[in-house]
Amino acid sequence: MTATPDARPRGTRLPRLARRRQLLGAAQEVFVAQGYHAAAMDEIAERAGVSKPVLYQHFPGKLELYLALLDEHAEALVNTVRDALGSTTDNKLRVQASMQAFYDFVAGEGEAYRLVFESDLRNVAPVRARVERANTQCAEMIAQVIAEDTNAPADEAHLLGMGLVGMAEVSARYWLSQHRAIPKDTAEKIIARLAWRGISGFPRTG
Amino acid sequence: MTATPDARPRGTRLPRLARRRQLLGAAQEVFVAQGYHAAAMDEIAERAGVSKPVLYQHFPGKLELYLALLDEHAEALVNTVRDALGSTTDNKLRVQASMQAFYDFVAGEGEAYRLVFESDLRNVAPVRARVERANTQCAEMIAQVIAEDTNAPADEAHLLGMGLVGMAEVSARYWLSQHRAIPKDTAEKIIARLAWRGISGFPRTG
DNA sequence: CAGCGAGGTTACTGGCGCGTAGGATGATGG
DNA sequence: CCATCATCCTACGCGCCAGTAACCTCGCTG
Protein backbone atom coordinates (compact mmCIF):
# COMPACT_ATOMS: atom_id res chain seq x y z
CA MET A 1 0.00 0.00 0.00
CA THR A 2 2.33 2.79 -1.17
CA ALA A 3 0.98 6.28 -0.74
CA THR A 4 -0.98 7.59 -3.70
CA PRO A 5 1.31 9.23 -6.30
CA ASP A 6 0.88 12.50 -4.51
CA ALA A 7 -0.73 15.58 -5.89
CA ARG A 8 1.38 18.22 -7.60
CA PRO A 9 2.75 21.08 -5.50
CA ARG A 10 -0.31 22.97 -4.32
CA GLY A 11 -0.13 26.70 -4.85
CA THR A 12 1.42 27.13 -8.32
CA ARG A 13 -0.51 29.43 -10.58
CA LEU A 14 -0.91 28.48 -14.22
CA PRO A 15 -2.13 30.24 -17.38
CA ARG A 16 -5.49 29.12 -18.52
CA LEU A 17 -4.53 26.77 -21.32
CA ALA A 18 -1.75 25.03 -19.42
CA ARG A 19 -4.09 24.48 -16.51
CA ARG A 20 -6.70 23.02 -18.81
CA ARG A 21 -4.24 20.52 -20.23
CA GLN A 22 -3.11 19.60 -16.76
CA LEU A 23 -6.68 19.09 -15.61
CA LEU A 24 -7.34 16.82 -18.56
CA GLY A 25 -4.29 14.81 -17.58
CA ALA A 26 -5.39 14.46 -14.00
CA ALA A 27 -8.92 13.59 -15.05
CA GLN A 28 -7.64 10.92 -17.40
CA GLU A 29 -5.65 9.25 -14.65
CA VAL A 30 -8.64 9.14 -12.36
CA PHE A 31 -11.23 8.14 -14.95
CA VAL A 32 -9.00 5.38 -16.29
CA ALA A 33 -8.20 4.02 -12.84
CA GLN A 34 -11.68 4.23 -11.35
CA GLY A 35 -14.16 4.60 -14.16
CA TYR A 36 -16.62 7.44 -14.49
CA HIS A 37 -18.88 6.62 -11.58
CA ALA A 38 -16.27 6.01 -8.93
CA ALA A 39 -14.30 9.06 -10.00
CA ALA A 40 -14.98 12.08 -7.79
CA MET A 41 -14.49 15.60 -9.01
CA ASP A 42 -12.80 16.35 -5.71
CA GLU A 43 -10.24 13.68 -6.41
CA ILE A 44 -9.51 14.92 -9.90
CA ALA A 45 -9.02 18.41 -8.57
CA GLU A 46 -6.83 17.20 -5.76
CA ARG A 47 -4.68 15.17 -8.12
CA ALA A 48 -4.16 18.32 -10.17
CA GLY A 49 -3.14 20.15 -6.99
CA VAL A 50 -6.08 22.48 -7.28
CA SER A 51 -9.53 22.97 -5.78
CA LYS A 52 -12.79 21.88 -7.31
CA PRO A 53 -14.19 25.19 -8.57
CA VAL A 54 -11.16 25.51 -10.83
CA LEU A 55 -12.37 22.39 -12.60
CA TYR A 56 -15.72 24.06 -13.17
CA GLN A 57 -14.07 27.13 -14.64
CA HIS A 58 -12.71 24.91 -17.40
CA PHE A 59 -15.51 22.39 -17.89
CA PRO A 60 -19.22 22.89 -17.35
CA GLY A 61 -19.63 19.55 -15.62
CA LYS A 62 -18.29 16.08 -15.00
CA LEU A 63 -19.85 14.64 -18.13
CA GLU A 64 -18.34 17.24 -20.41
CA LEU A 65 -14.94 16.67 -18.90
CA TYR A 66 -15.31 12.98 -19.58
CA LEU A 67 -16.53 13.55 -23.12
CA ALA A 68 -13.54 15.74 -23.88
CA LEU A 69 -11.23 12.87 -23.02
CA LEU A 70 -13.37 10.29 -24.77
CA ASP A 71 -13.43 12.33 -27.96
CA GLU A 72 -9.69 12.74 -27.89
CA HIS A 73 -8.95 9.04 -27.64
CA ALA A 74 -11.72 7.81 -29.88
CA GLU A 75 -10.36 10.06 -32.56
CA ALA A 76 -6.86 8.81 -31.91
CA LEU A 77 -8.00 5.24 -32.50
CA VAL A 78 -9.78 6.05 -35.72
CA ASN A 79 -6.80 8.01 -36.99
CA THR A 80 -4.39 5.21 -36.19
CA VAL A 81 -6.50 2.71 -38.08
CA ARG A 82 -6.96 5.08 -40.99
CA ASP A 83 -3.23 5.64 -41.23
CA ALA A 84 -2.62 1.90 -41.11
CA LEU A 85 -4.99 1.27 -43.98
CA GLY A 86 -3.50 4.12 -45.97
CA SER A 87 0.08 3.05 -45.40
CA THR A 88 0.11 0.56 -48.28
CA THR A 89 -2.04 -0.94 -51.02
CA ASP A 90 -0.90 -4.50 -50.38
CA ASN A 91 -3.90 -5.96 -48.59
CA LYS A 92 -1.86 -8.45 -46.64
CA LEU A 93 0.27 -5.67 -45.26
CA ARG A 94 -2.85 -3.62 -44.69
CA VAL A 95 -4.22 -6.30 -42.43
CA GLN A 96 -0.93 -6.52 -40.58
CA ALA A 97 -0.82 -2.75 -40.13
CA SER A 98 -4.43 -2.56 -38.98
CA MET A 99 -3.94 -5.17 -36.31
CA GLN A 100 -0.84 -3.36 -35.17
CA ALA A 101 -2.91 -0.18 -34.95
CA PHE A 102 -5.17 -1.76 -32.34
CA TYR A 103 -2.28 -3.18 -30.39
CA ASP A 104 -0.56 0.20 -30.47
CA PHE A 105 -3.70 1.88 -29.25
CA VAL A 106 -4.14 -0.54 -26.39
CA ALA A 107 -0.48 -0.32 -25.44
CA GLY A 108 -0.63 3.49 -25.44
CA GLU A 109 0.39 5.66 -22.53
CA GLY A 110 -1.75 5.58 -19.42
CA GLU A 111 -4.12 2.82 -20.52
CA ALA A 112 -6.30 5.47 -22.09
CA TYR A 113 -7.83 2.79 -24.32
CA ARG A 114 -10.06 1.92 -21.36
CA LEU A 115 -12.05 5.09 -21.96
CA VAL A 116 -13.06 3.82 -25.37
CA PHE A 117 -13.19 0.05 -24.85
CA GLU A 118 -14.29 -0.27 -21.23
CA SER A 119 -16.33 2.80 -20.48
CA ASP A 120 -18.89 2.47 -17.78
CA LEU A 121 -21.48 5.07 -18.91
CA ARG A 122 -22.33 3.50 -22.24
CA ASN A 123 -25.91 3.79 -21.05
CA VAL A 124 -25.65 7.55 -21.41
CA ALA A 125 -26.54 8.56 -24.93
CA PRO A 126 -23.66 10.88 -25.83
CA VAL A 127 -21.13 8.37 -24.58
CA ARG A 128 -22.76 5.47 -26.36
CA ALA A 129 -22.86 7.47 -29.56
CA ARG A 130 -19.16 8.23 -29.43
CA VAL A 131 -18.07 4.70 -28.60
CA GLU A 132 -20.24 3.22 -31.30
CA ARG A 133 -19.10 5.80 -33.80
CA ALA A 134 -15.47 4.97 -33.21
CA ASN A 135 -16.12 1.27 -33.67
CA THR A 136 -18.30 1.84 -36.70
CA GLN A 137 -15.79 4.11 -38.37
CA CYS A 138 -13.03 1.56 -37.93
CA ALA A 139 -15.21 -1.23 -39.25
CA GLU A 140 -16.39 0.91 -42.11
CA MET A 141 -12.90 1.80 -43.28
CA ILE A 142 -12.06 -1.88 -43.30
CA ALA A 143 -15.34 -2.74 -44.99
CA GLN A 144 -14.51 -0.21 -47.67
CA VAL A 145 -11.35 -2.08 -48.58
CA ILE A 146 -13.16 -5.40 -48.48
CA ALA A 147 -15.95 -4.16 -50.70
CA GLU A 148 -13.48 -2.73 -53.22
CA ASP A 149 -11.41 -5.85 -53.53
CA THR A 150 -14.11 -8.52 -53.40
CA ASN A 151 -17.61 -8.84 -54.71
CA ALA A 152 -19.07 -8.94 -51.22
CA PRO A 153 -22.23 -6.85 -50.80
CA ALA A 154 -22.06 -3.84 -48.49
CA ASP A 155 -23.95 -5.46 -45.60
CA GLU A 156 -21.63 -8.40 -45.62
CA ALA A 157 -18.51 -6.25 -45.86
CA HIS A 158 -19.65 -4.27 -42.84
CA LEU A 159 -20.23 -7.39 -40.82
CA LEU A 160 -16.82 -8.73 -41.78
CA GLY A 161 -15.22 -5.42 -40.89
CA MET A 162 -16.85 -5.47 -37.49
CA GLY A 163 -15.73 -9.05 -37.00
CA LEU A 164 -12.13 -8.06 -37.66
CA VAL A 165 -12.43 -5.06 -35.38
CA GLY A 166 -13.71 -7.30 -32.60
CA MET A 167 -10.93 -9.77 -33.15
CA ALA A 168 -8.31 -7.06 -32.92
CA GLU A 169 -9.84 -5.25 -29.97
CA VAL A 170 -10.56 -8.23 -27.77
CA SER A 171 -7.34 -10.06 -28.49
CA ALA A 172 -5.33 -6.90 -27.89
CA ARG A 173 -6.99 -6.34 -24.54
CA TYR A 174 -6.37 -9.95 -23.65
CA TRP A 175 -2.73 -9.65 -24.67
CA LEU A 176 -2.34 -6.61 -22.42
CA SER A 177 -4.13 -8.29 -19.53
CA GLN A 178 -1.47 -11.00 -19.68
CA HIS A 179 1.11 -8.25 -19.07
CA ARG A 180 2.66 -8.75 -22.47
CA ALA A 181 3.55 -12.41 -21.83
CA ILE A 182 3.78 -12.67 -25.61
CA PRO A 183 5.99 -10.07 -27.34
CA LYS A 184 3.86 -7.41 -28.94
CA ASP A 185 4.96 -7.98 -32.52
CA THR A 186 4.49 -11.71 -32.15
CA ALA A 187 0.93 -11.29 -30.95
CA GLU A 188 0.25 -8.85 -33.76
CA LYS A 189 1.55 -11.30 -36.34
CA ILE A 190 -0.48 -14.20 -34.99
CA ILE A 191 -3.67 -12.20 -35.10
CA ALA A 192 -2.81 -10.64 -38.44
CA ARG A 193 -2.31 -14.10 -39.88
CA LEU A 194 -5.66 -15.24 -38.50
CA ALA A 195 -7.32 -12.20 -40.02
CA TRP A 196 -5.57 -12.40 -43.36
CA ARG A 197 -6.20 -16.09 -43.87
CA GLY A 198 -9.81 -15.43 -42.97
CA ILE A 199 -10.40 -12.51 -45.27
CA SER A 200 -8.11 -13.03 -48.25
CA GLY A 201 -9.76 -14.01 -51.51
CA PHE A 202 -13.08 -13.94 -49.75
CA PRO A 203 -15.50 -14.03 -52.69
CA ARG A 204 -14.93 -17.58 -53.89
CA THR A 205 -15.02 -20.82 -51.92
CA GLY A 206 -16.71 -21.62 -48.61
CA MET B 1 -43.55 6.81 -25.87
CA THR B 2 -45.91 4.08 -24.68
CA ALA B 3 -46.45 3.87 -20.94
CA THR B 4 -43.95 1.68 -19.12
CA PRO B 5 -45.09 -1.99 -19.07
CA ASP B 6 -46.76 -1.35 -15.77
CA ALA B 7 -45.99 -3.01 -12.48
CA ARG B 8 -47.75 -6.23 -11.59
CA PRO B 9 -50.92 -6.03 -9.49
CA ARG B 10 -49.81 -4.67 -6.16
CA GLY B 11 -51.00 -6.70 -3.19
CA THR B 12 -50.63 -10.34 -4.27
CA ARG B 13 -48.76 -12.48 -1.75
CA LEU B 14 -46.26 -14.96 -3.05
CA PRO B 15 -44.33 -17.87 -1.52
CA ARG B 16 -40.70 -17.14 -0.97
CA LEU B 17 -39.18 -18.89 -3.95
CA ALA B 18 -41.68 -17.63 -6.48
CA ARG B 19 -41.18 -14.09 -5.22
CA ARG B 20 -37.44 -14.47 -5.54
CA ARG B 21 -37.72 -15.55 -9.15
CA GLN B 22 -40.05 -12.68 -9.88
CA LEU B 23 -37.69 -10.20 -8.28
CA LEU B 24 -34.83 -11.51 -10.38
CA GLY B 25 -36.97 -11.02 -13.45
CA ALA B 26 -37.83 -7.45 -12.55
CA ALA B 27 -34.23 -6.69 -11.67
CA GLN B 28 -33.03 -8.05 -14.98
CA GLU B 29 -35.40 -5.83 -16.90
CA VAL B 30 -34.22 -2.75 -15.07
CA PHE B 31 -30.51 -3.56 -15.05
CA VAL B 32 -30.55 -4.39 -18.73
CA ALA B 33 -32.45 -1.27 -19.67
CA GLN B 34 -30.60 1.19 -17.45
CA GLY B 35 -27.35 -0.40 -16.38
CA TYR B 36 -26.31 -0.92 -12.79
CA HIS B 37 -25.76 2.67 -11.78
CA ALA B 38 -28.92 4.19 -13.19
CA ALA B 39 -31.02 1.34 -11.82
CA ALA B 40 -32.73 2.22 -8.55
CA MET B 41 -33.76 -0.41 -6.05
CA ASP B 42 -37.05 1.45 -5.69
CA GLU B 43 -37.71 1.00 -9.37
CA ILE B 44 -36.93 -2.70 -9.33
CA ALA B 45 -39.26 -3.18 -6.40
CA GLU B 46 -41.96 -1.14 -8.04
CA ARG B 47 -41.69 -3.09 -11.26
CA ALA B 48 -42.18 -6.26 -9.26
CA GLY B 49 -45.26 -4.72 -7.65
CA VAL B 50 -43.67 -4.83 -4.25
CA SER B 51 -41.98 -2.50 -1.80
CA LYS B 52 -38.26 -2.12 -1.32
CA PRO B 53 -37.73 -4.02 1.95
CA VAL B 54 -39.02 -7.16 0.25
CA LEU B 55 -36.04 -6.92 -2.06
CA TYR B 56 -33.76 -6.83 0.95
CA GLN B 57 -35.38 -9.91 2.41
CA HIS B 58 -34.19 -11.84 -0.63
CA PHE B 59 -30.85 -10.20 -1.40
CA PRO B 60 -28.44 -8.56 1.02
CA GLY B 61 -27.81 -5.61 -1.27
CA LYS B 62 -27.90 -4.19 -4.75
CA LEU B 63 -24.54 -5.66 -5.71
CA GLU B 64 -25.48 -9.19 -4.71
CA LEU B 65 -28.70 -8.94 -6.68
CA TYR B 66 -26.71 -7.88 -9.70
CA LEU B 67 -24.15 -10.63 -9.23
CA ALA B 68 -26.88 -13.27 -9.06
CA LEU B 69 -28.06 -12.22 -12.51
CA LEU B 70 -24.57 -11.87 -13.89
CA ASP B 71 -23.62 -15.35 -12.73
CA GLU B 72 -26.70 -16.82 -14.30
CA HIS B 73 -26.06 -15.38 -17.73
CA ALA B 74 -22.31 -15.75 -17.74
CA GLU B 75 -22.80 -19.42 -17.05
CA ALA B 76 -25.41 -19.62 -19.78
CA LEU B 77 -22.92 -18.25 -22.29
CA VAL B 78 -20.18 -20.63 -21.29
CA ASN B 79 -22.55 -23.59 -21.41
CA THR B 80 -23.83 -22.65 -24.85
CA VAL B 81 -20.31 -22.46 -26.21
CA ARG B 82 -19.32 -25.71 -24.51
CA ASP B 83 -22.29 -27.50 -26.02
CA ALA B 84 -21.47 -26.09 -29.43
CA LEU B 85 -17.91 -27.38 -29.27
CA GLY B 86 -19.09 -30.76 -28.01
CA SER B 87 -21.77 -31.14 -30.65
CA THR B 88 -19.42 -32.55 -33.28
CA THR B 89 -15.79 -33.45 -33.94
CA ASP B 90 -15.73 -31.90 -37.39
CA ASN B 91 -13.77 -28.72 -36.76
CA LYS B 92 -15.43 -26.79 -39.52
CA LEU B 93 -18.83 -27.55 -38.04
CA ARG B 94 -17.45 -26.75 -34.61
CA VAL B 95 -16.55 -23.27 -35.72
CA GLN B 96 -19.97 -22.85 -37.27
CA ALA B 97 -21.67 -24.04 -34.09
CA SER B 98 -19.53 -21.83 -31.86
CA MET B 99 -20.31 -18.72 -33.82
CA GLN B 100 -23.96 -19.63 -33.68
CA ALA B 101 -23.64 -19.99 -29.91
CA PHE B 102 -22.64 -16.34 -29.59
CA TYR B 103 -25.39 -15.18 -31.92
CA ASP B 104 -27.90 -17.24 -29.98
CA PHE B 105 -26.70 -15.75 -26.74
CA VAL B 106 -26.96 -12.21 -28.02
CA ALA B 107 -30.36 -12.86 -29.53
CA GLY B 108 -31.63 -14.35 -26.29
CA GLU B 109 -34.72 -13.18 -24.45
CA GLY B 110 -34.61 -9.74 -22.83
CA GLU B 111 -31.21 -8.69 -24.15
CA ALA B 112 -29.66 -10.27 -21.09
CA TYR B 113 -26.37 -10.48 -22.95
CA ARG B 114 -25.85 -6.86 -22.01
CA LEU B 115 -25.15 -7.90 -18.45
CA VAL B 116 -22.13 -9.88 -19.61
CA PHE B 117 -20.93 -7.88 -22.60
CA GLU B 118 -21.84 -4.32 -21.66
CA SER B 119 -21.76 -4.17 -17.90
CA ASP B 120 -21.04 -0.84 -16.38
CA LEU B 121 -19.41 -1.87 -13.07
CA ARG B 122 -16.45 -3.71 -14.54
CA ASN B 123 -14.40 -1.53 -12.24
CA VAL B 124 -15.77 -3.44 -9.28
CA ALA B 125 -13.64 -6.49 -8.62
CA PRO B 126 -16.25 -9.25 -8.29
CA VAL B 127 -17.95 -8.11 -11.47
CA ARG B 128 -14.72 -7.82 -13.40
CA ALA B 129 -13.71 -11.29 -12.25
CA ARG B 130 -16.93 -12.84 -13.49
CA VAL B 131 -16.92 -11.11 -16.85
CA GLU B 132 -13.30 -11.98 -17.49
CA ARG B 133 -13.83 -15.53 -16.36
CA ALA B 134 -16.66 -16.04 -18.82
CA ASN B 135 -14.57 -14.67 -21.66
CA THR B 136 -11.54 -16.65 -20.63
CA GLN B 137 -13.45 -19.90 -20.33
CA CYS B 138 -14.89 -19.51 -23.80
CA ALA B 139 -11.50 -18.67 -25.25
CA GLU B 140 -9.89 -21.52 -23.38
CA MET B 141 -12.31 -24.13 -24.64
CA ILE B 142 -11.63 -22.96 -28.17
CA ALA B 143 -7.90 -22.84 -27.52
CA GLN B 144 -8.09 -26.41 -26.32
CA VAL B 145 -9.39 -27.56 -29.67
CA ILE B 146 -6.84 -25.47 -31.52
CA ALA B 147 -3.98 -26.83 -29.46
CA GLU B 148 -5.12 -30.40 -30.00
CA ASP B 149 -5.43 -30.14 -33.74
CA THR B 150 -2.44 -27.97 -34.55
CA ASN B 151 1.09 -27.66 -33.29
CA ALA B 152 0.46 -24.18 -31.95
CA PRO B 153 1.92 -23.54 -28.49
CA ALA B 154 -0.49 -22.89 -25.62
CA ASP B 155 0.10 -19.12 -25.48
CA GLU B 156 -0.61 -18.79 -29.14
CA ALA B 157 -3.68 -21.00 -28.99
CA HIS B 158 -5.09 -18.85 -26.18
CA LEU B 159 -4.55 -15.68 -28.13
CA LEU B 160 -6.21 -17.17 -31.18
CA GLY B 161 -9.11 -18.36 -29.04
CA MET B 162 -9.59 -14.89 -27.65
CA GLY B 163 -9.40 -13.45 -31.15
CA LEU B 164 -12.21 -15.71 -32.28
CA VAL B 165 -14.25 -14.90 -29.20
CA GLY B 166 -13.86 -11.20 -29.90
CA MET B 167 -14.83 -11.67 -33.51
CA ALA B 168 -17.98 -13.53 -32.52
CA GLU B 169 -18.96 -11.24 -29.69
CA VAL B 170 -18.46 -7.91 -31.42
CA SER B 171 -19.92 -8.97 -34.74
CA ALA B 172 -22.94 -10.47 -33.01
CA ARG B 173 -23.57 -7.28 -31.06
CA TYR B 174 -23.21 -5.29 -34.26
CA TRP B 175 -25.62 -7.60 -36.06
CA LEU B 176 -28.18 -7.09 -33.31
CA SER B 177 -27.66 -3.32 -33.25
CA GLN B 178 -28.66 -3.32 -36.92
CA HIS B 179 -31.96 -4.86 -35.83
CA ARG B 180 -31.26 -8.08 -37.70
CA ALA B 181 -30.94 -6.39 -41.07
CA ILE B 182 -29.08 -9.54 -42.11
CA PRO B 183 -30.85 -12.85 -41.39
CA LYS B 184 -29.35 -14.49 -38.35
CA ASP B 185 -28.16 -17.65 -40.05
CA THR B 186 -26.63 -15.66 -42.88
CA ALA B 187 -24.63 -13.52 -40.47
CA GLU B 188 -23.54 -16.61 -38.60
CA LYS B 189 -22.34 -18.25 -41.79
CA ILE B 190 -20.41 -15.21 -42.94
CA ILE B 191 -18.59 -14.94 -39.64
CA ALA B 192 -18.12 -18.70 -39.37
CA ARG B 193 -16.50 -18.67 -42.78
CA LEU B 194 -14.19 -15.84 -41.77
CA ALA B 195 -13.23 -17.75 -38.66
CA TRP B 196 -12.83 -21.10 -40.34
CA ARG B 197 -10.70 -19.80 -43.20
CA GLY B 198 -8.60 -18.00 -40.63
CA ILE B 199 -8.05 -20.88 -38.30
CA SER B 200 -8.09 -24.02 -40.48
CA GLY B 201 -4.78 -25.75 -41.03
CA PHE B 202 -3.13 -23.08 -38.95
CA PRO B 203 0.31 -24.57 -38.30
CA ARG B 204 1.78 -24.34 -41.78
CA THR B 205 2.03 -21.37 -44.11
CA GLY B 206 1.72 -17.61 -43.45
C1' DC C 1 1.48 52.55 -5.16
C1' DA C 2 -3.53 51.94 -6.06
C1' DG C 3 -6.68 49.12 -8.08
C1' DC C 4 -8.20 45.65 -11.11
C1' DG C 5 -8.63 41.21 -12.98
C1' DA C 6 -7.13 36.47 -13.60
C1' DG C 7 -6.62 32.62 -11.00
C1' DG C 8 -7.62 30.16 -6.60
C1' DT C 9 -9.80 28.94 -2.02
C1' DT C 10 -13.05 27.45 1.78
C1' DA C 11 -17.23 26.03 2.98
C1' DC C 12 -21.75 25.03 1.99
C1' DT C 13 -26.29 23.15 -0.23
C1' DG C 14 -29.39 20.16 -2.30
C1' DG C 15 -30.78 15.91 -4.07
C1' DC C 16 -30.51 11.31 -4.78
C1' DG C 17 -30.70 6.57 -3.44
C1' DC C 18 -29.15 2.61 -0.53
C1' DG C 19 -30.40 0.45 3.33
C1' DT C 20 -33.48 -0.09 7.83
C1' DA C 21 -36.71 0.41 11.94
C1' DG C 22 -41.08 -0.59 13.25
C1' DG C 23 -45.72 -1.65 12.30
C1' DA C 24 -49.77 -3.84 9.70
C1' DT C 25 -52.11 -7.85 7.56
C1' DG C 26 -53.29 -12.18 5.80
C1' DA C 27 -52.84 -17.31 6.28
C1' DT C 28 -52.46 -21.55 9.26
C1' DG C 29 -52.81 -24.60 13.25
C1' DG C 30 -54.62 -25.35 17.86
C1' DC D 1 -62.02 -18.05 17.58
C1' DC D 2 -57.18 -16.98 19.05
C1' DA D 3 -52.11 -17.23 18.50
C1' DT D 4 -48.26 -17.21 15.61
C1' DC D 5 -45.50 -16.69 11.78
C1' DA D 6 -44.30 -15.28 7.32
C1' DT D 7 -45.05 -11.69 4.16
C1' DC D 8 -45.34 -6.97 3.04
C1' DC D 9 -45.83 -1.81 3.94
C1' DT D 10 -44.85 3.28 5.25
C1' DA D 11 -41.57 6.21 6.45
C1' DC D 12 -37.12 7.72 7.53
C1' DG D 13 -31.88 8.19 8.34
C1' DC D 14 -27.71 9.03 6.51
C1' DG D 15 -23.68 9.37 3.49
C1' DC D 16 -22.01 10.81 -0.74
C1' DC D 17 -20.97 14.04 -4.28
C1' DA D 18 -21.89 17.29 -8.16
C1' DG D 19 -22.21 21.84 -8.38
C1' DT D 20 -22.16 26.93 -6.22
C1' DA D 21 -21.68 31.29 -3.45
C1' DA D 22 -18.70 34.31 -1.54
C1' DC D 23 -14.31 35.62 -0.55
C1' DC D 24 -9.08 35.93 -1.11
C1' DT D 25 -4.33 37.21 -3.33
C1' DC D 26 -0.94 37.66 -6.54
C1' DG D 27 1.10 40.46 -9.97
C1' DC D 28 0.63 43.54 -13.60
C1' DT D 29 -0.49 48.31 -15.32
C1' DG D 30 -1.17 53.10 -15.37
What characteristic shape of chain A results from the CA principal axes? elongated
Taking all Cα atoms into account, the compactness measure Rg of chain A is 20 Å
Q: Number of helix segments of chain A?
A: 9
Stretches of chain A where pLDDT is under 50 for at least 5 consecutive residues are 1-8
Q: How many strands appear in the DSSP assignment of chain A?
A: 0
Helix content of chain A: over 70%
Oligomeric composition of the shown chains? homodimer
Distance between the termini of chain A: 56 Å
- Mean pLDDT across every amino acid position of chain A: 93
Most extensive chain interface and residues per partner: A-B, 46 and 45 residues
Pfam families (chains A, B): TetR_N
Protein name (chains A, B): TetR/AcrR family transcriptional regulator
InterPro entries (chains A, B): Homeodomain-like_sf, HTH-type_TetR-like_transc_reg, HTH_TetR, Tet_transcr_reg_TetR-rel_C_sf
Keywords (chains A, B): DNA-binding
Explained architecture:
Two copies of one chain form a homodimer. Chain A has 206 residues and is an all-alpha fold. Helices cover 72% and strands 0% of the residues of chain A. The first copy, chain A, is built from nine helices and no strands. Chain A has helices spanning 16-38, 41-47, 52-58, 62-86, 91-107, 113-117, 125-149, 154-177, 184-199. In chain A, helix 4 packs parallel to helix 7 (125-149). At the A-B interface, helix 1, helix 7, helix 8 and helix 9 of A face helix 1, helix 7, helix 8 and helix 9 of B. The structure holds a DNA duplex (30 and 30 nucleotides). Chains A, B: Residues 17-77 form the HTH tetR-type domain.
